[in-house]
User: Fold this.
Amino acid sequence: MIVSPIGFHLFNLVVDELNELSNLITKAINDRPTKLAWSVTLNPDSPQASFISTLSDKSLEQTLTDLSIFTEEHLAELNSTEAELKN
Assistant:
């Protein structure tokens, strides 16, 4: 842009449009839910609950994948706990 009255006018138009875009993105972000309603059903001391409660843009998908894998070890622990509860 050139330093002239029209240049300042055009600059103000650009600034106004950028401010409006900023308002639109802020509204869009605020319209999205940030709480996961089902997270209260997780055991508070579990790694999954800890991960979900600290979920952010810096959270790694690999961590989520690692936490979601159900291994034979988990199955054995589950069966052991169920057997204890039956007795």
